[in-house]
Structures are given as structure tokens and as C-alpha cells.
Design goal:
Blueprint lengths: L1 H33 L6 E2 L2 E2 L6 H4 L1 H16 L2 H8 L2 H20 L1 E2 L8 E2 L7 H12 L2 H19 L3 H5 L4 H11 L2 H20 L10 H26 L2 H20 L3 H9 L2 H7 L1 H17 L1 H19 L18 H15 L2 H17 L5 H9 L3 H18 L1 H18 L3 E2 H5 L3 H21 L1 H7 L2 H11 L2 H40 L1
Parallel strand pairs: 3-4
Antiparallel strand pairs: 1-2, 3-5
Helix pairs in contact: 1-26, 3-25, 5-23, 6-21, 7-20, 9-18, 10-17, 11-15, 11-16, 11-19, 12-15
Length: 524
């Protein structure tokens, strides 16, 4: 048996030794990639292959890995694909939902050691915040923002159809307004103002045009012109009522008799003989209707309309040119103020307007006109009554508002700060979600919106992110910053299994060479 084993050694030993040599040499070669970590010297001469290949080429290794990561792995398409994946979107949504949930559960108040509360800047930094607000109110940015807001608001208001608003008004609303305007308090307030103003103007010799200046007269004329069709329609409606026509017919008959009484006996005899007076009386209803028809035609004539407005303007200017002392119902023969007479006039007017039947008639007439009026934008009414266009209104309101903020900036800033501070004090220790009453469905929509917006922003900013963040340099600096033992561990984590197979393949190749040697020896 021993002799048999001895005879087999020439066939077994070469493959075994070849396998061992192949495995061990590959293992040593792999080891020499990393070790030694530093150069070794013998009598001042550097020993070959020290340090190992990887420590020696560490800079190139880091540069190559960094280049591979930045050029091949972290590309724009790769990152965009990850961002657009459902997993990434779901993760973003869950993070935002969790964040908003924590915000809604957070209590408003001063932050304490325990509990999740939102800090409130109460009693601190008042002077700083008010100064910042004051400077902002006087800045060009605030003026631009305010102008934009006012422009949008006025554009909305000016484009509203006035009829659409007024048709919603009913008699109850008008009567309620008239009750307020004709109340005892309103009456006394009007009397006080008129007494004070009247005394001042009479004592100083003031003229009525202090009240009836050209702007006011123009405004009244514009109002008359605007509502002229409604006024004419109301007048004609009143005149065409049966009761009014009956009165006109009776007055016409009385007028006819008065005229006949002023004629001579011969003239009356001539008219009576021909029965003209009787015919005229019988046809009085027809005459009244004809007069009303002609009155309506004359009233609708644009020329007559213009003349009526011009006559009204002239009458108002003539009246405005008088002094208050010239009006007998304001002063006595000695020029002393008769406020009692003026007070009596005002009280009679208020008493008349306060009658329920009159208020009902006025309210009904106003509401009827509201429903019958043609569509007209608010801008047209304002322009016709004041001469202001939408651009003029925006400019005027912006200028006055900015001026007010500049003058009252300190007070406004302090008031805003105090208001916010008091609001937070009153809300202290209350969850934010309880204050805003946000339903789960609305919160879900908000979370979805925020997550989609965030993903969209990230997706659009990928090129800028890659350009601003040098991933290659980050990887290179990180590798160069590690000691070689950690670099070895890092590489072995990735290729240790593959290196083991290199050892095994080295042993297999060594065994194959040994076996090949046996075959060659036998052949020779």
C-alpha cells in the first residue's frame, strides 16, 4: 500500500502543489495591493513594492472613484428618475403630513421645557418690530404693493353692475335706512350743524356759494342728468294716475270758468251761444291726456333735457351768489339770525319724511326704479358724477393712503404689534389646529399640494444642485481624508467576495498547471 502511494505521488503531488502555490501567491498579491501601508527601507534603500499599490496610488484611486460617481452614478437623469419615483413622492408626502400634523398640534404660547409649543414674541422687541414696520410703510416697495392691491380692488368694484347690486334691495332695506336718516338723533345733528354753519356765515357775510360752489353744482347737474329718465318717468307715472288726472281735469274746469268770468258779456254770450265752454268741459279728460302726452314728448326731447339742466345750473348759481343775510327766512329786518325759522323748516321736513305712508311710497318708488334701471357699471356712475376715472381713483386713493401711513406709521406699527401680541396672549396654550379649524380633508389637500410643489421645485433645480454641489470633490476629499486601513475596509466591503474567487481560481489554475506537467512528463 505504501509502495503504491509512493508510486502515485508523481501524479498527485504536482497538481496539489500547483493549487497551493496558485492560491497562496494570489492571496499574497491581493494582500500586497493594500500592504504595507507605508514604504519600507533596508539600509536606506526602499524595498520594491512598498508601500502597496493602492496606498501608493491613493490619489488616483480617489480621483477615479469620484469621477465615476459624479459622471456615471449621480447623473441628472438618475436623480430625476429617483425623484419622480412613487416611493420618493410618498416619502415626501408622509414627511410633510407629519410636519403639518405637529404644527397643528403645537400649542401657541411661550416655549416651555416640556411640551411642544410655538414661541410668541410677546413683550420683546417691540421697538425693533415697530421700527421695521414704520420703515416698510415709508418704502417704495410698500407703495407698489399698496398700489397693486388698490388697483385690483377698485377694478373689481368699478366693474360691478350697479343694477345687480340695487336689484337685491327691497322696500324694507330702504325704509330701514330712511328710519335711520329721519330719526330724532339725525334731526338734532342736522339742526346743530346748520345752526353753527349758518351763524358763522351770516356773521361773516358769507355767500351761499360756500355750499353751492361750481363743483357741487356740477355734481348736482350730473346727478340730475344721470337720474333724469327716472325722475321724468316717476313724474309721468304720477301725472297719469287716475286720481291725479281727475284733479287736473277739475282744475282745468275751474280755470276755464275763471277765464270766462274775465271775459266781457258779449264775449261770454258768443262763447255760450256756440257752447264752446260746454264742449271744452266735456273734452277736458281728452285735453288733459293730450297735454300729458305732449309733456312726455317734450320731456324726452334731448334738447329740452339739456335746457332743463342748464336752467337748473343757472338757478343754482344765481341762488349761490346771494348772501345768507339776503334770505328772509334766515334773518329778520335787522339782519339778526332767525335760527328758529330754519329749525322749524328742518323739523317740518323731517316730520314729513318720517310719515310711514310717505316712507313706504318713497321706498316702493326707489325699489321700482332700481329694478327698472338699465345695466350700468359703477365706473360709469362715478365718472359721470365725480369726473373720476378708475386710474384717477387708484392714484388718488394710493397717494392718500401712503401719506396716511407715513404720517401715522409709528402709531399703526405699535397698534399692529399690540394687536398681534394680545391675540397670541389670548390664544396661549391652545393648539393651532383648534384655532384654524382645519378639516382632515382640507389638510390632506394642503399636504398633497405642498408635497407636489416641493417635488416640482427639486426636479426643476436638479441642474443647479448638481452644478453647485461638487459630488466628485466630496467623494475625493472623503476618500483622501480616510486612513488606509479604513480605505482597505471600504474596498473589501465591496470586492471581498470577488477577491476570494480570485484566490480559488488561482488554486484551480495552479492545479491545472501541475496536472499538465504530469501529462507532459509521462509523454516524454
Amino acid at each position: 500500500m505504501i509502495s503504491g502511494l509512493y508510486n502515485a505521488l508523481p501524479f498527485i503531488l504536482p497538481p496539489v502543489l500547483g493549487a497551493v502555490i496558485g492560491y497562496v501567491t494570489n492571496a499574497i498579491a491581493i494582500r500586497m495591493l493594500f500592504r504595507p501601508l507605508t514604504a519600507k527601507y533596508f539600509f536606506g534603500i526602499r524595498i520594491p513594492f512598498t508601500p502597496g499599490l493602492i496606498p501608493k496610488q491613493r490619489g488616483n484611486l480617489a480621483s477615479n472613484i469620484a469621477s465615476m460617481v459624479s459622471d456615471e452614478l449621480l447623473t441628472e437623469d438618475a436623480i430625476r428618475g429617483q425623484i419622480q419615483s412613487e416611493g420618493f413622492k410618498t416619502g415626501i408626502y408622509n414627511s410633510i403630513a407629519s410636519f403639518t400634523e405637529n404644527i397643528l398640534k403645537a400649542e401657541i404660547g411661550k416655549k416651555k421645557a416640556s411640551g411642544n409649543q410655538l414661541p410668541v414674541p410677546v413683550e420683546k422687541g417691540r421697538s425693533i418690530i415697530t421700527a421695521i414696520l414704520r420703515d416698510f410703510f415709508s418704502s417704495a416697495t410698500f407703495s407698489q404693493v399698496l398700489n397693486t392691491i388698490i388697483k385690483k380692488v377698485l377694478h373689481f368694484l368699478f366693474s360691478i353692475d350697479l343694477k345687480d347690486i340695487l336689484r337685491r334691495v327691497d322696500s324694507r332695506h330702504v325704509e330701514k335706512l330712511m328710519e335711520t336718516l329721519t330719526s330724532k338723533n339725525a334731526e338734532e345733528a342736522v339742526i346743530r350743524v346748520l345752526k353753527k354753519g349758518l351763524n358763522r356765515e351770516i356773521e361773516t357775510g358769507g355767500k351761499i356759494n360756500v355750499l353751492l360752489n361750481d363743483d357741487v353744482i356740477q355734481l348736482i347737474s350730473s346727478v340730475i342728468d344721470t337720474f333724469y329718465p327716472n325722475i321724468l318717468s316717476s313724474l309721468l307715472e304720477w301725472l297719469n294716475k287716475k286720481s291725479t288726472r281727475d284733479q287736473l281735469e277739475n282744475r282745468g274746469k275751474v280755470l276755464l270758468r275763471d277765464v270766462l268770468d274775465k271775459l266781457t258779456a258779449f264775449q261770454r254770450f258768443f262763447i255760450s251761444a256756440a257752447q264752446y265752454d260746454r264742449v271744452i268741459e266735456e273734452r277736458m279728460p281728452e285735453i288733459v291726456r293730450d297735454v300729458l302726452r305732449r309733456l312726455e314728448e317734450a320731456g324726452k326731447d334731448p334738447k329740452n333735457r339739456k335746457q332743463i339742466i342748464e336752467v337748473a345750473e343757472k338757478a343754482l348759481r344765481d341762488f349761490g351768489g346771494k348772501e345768507f343775510q339776503e334770505l328772509a327766512f334766515f334773518t329778520d329786518e335787522n339782519g339778526n339770525v332767525k335760527t328758529g325759522q330754519m329749525e322749524k323748516i328742518v323739523r317740518n321736513i323731517f316730520s314729513l319724511l318720517g310719515k310711514q305712508d310717505l316712507k313706504e311710497k318713497i321706498a316702493g318708488s326707489i325699489v321700482k326704479r332700481f329694478h327698472e334701471m338699465d345695466p350700468v357699471p359703477v365706473s360709469a356712475v362715478i365718472h359721470k358724477t365725480t369726473g373720476y376715472t378708475e386710474e384717477d381713483a387708484v392714484s388718488f386713493i394710493t397717494e392718500k393712503t401712503v401719506l396716511w401711513f407715513n404720517e401715522k406709521g409709528e402709531e399703526i406699527s405699535g397698534a399692529l404689534y399690540d394687536f398681534v401680541a394680545d391675540m397670541f396672549r389670548n390664544m396661549e396654550a391652545k393648539p393651532l389646529g383648534e384655532l384654524i379649524s382645519l378639516s382632515p380633508e382640507r389638510k390632506e389637500k394642503i399636504d398633497q399640494f405642498l408635497s407636489e410643489r416641493l417635488v416640482g421645485i427639486i426636479d426643476n433645480k436638479i441642474p443647479q444642485i448638481l452644478q453647485s454641489v461638487n459630488f466628485g470633490k466630496i467623494v475625493s476629499d472623503k476618500i483622501n481624508g480616510l486612513d488606509m486601513e479604513n480605505v482597505e475596509k471600504l474596498l473589501l466591503m465591496v470586492i471581498s467576495k470577488h477577491l476570494r474567487w480570485i484566490n480559488i481560481l488561482g488554486g484551480v489554475l495552479g492545479a491545472f498547471i501541475g496536472a499538465l506537467q504530469v501529462v507532459i512528463n509521462q509523454l516524454l
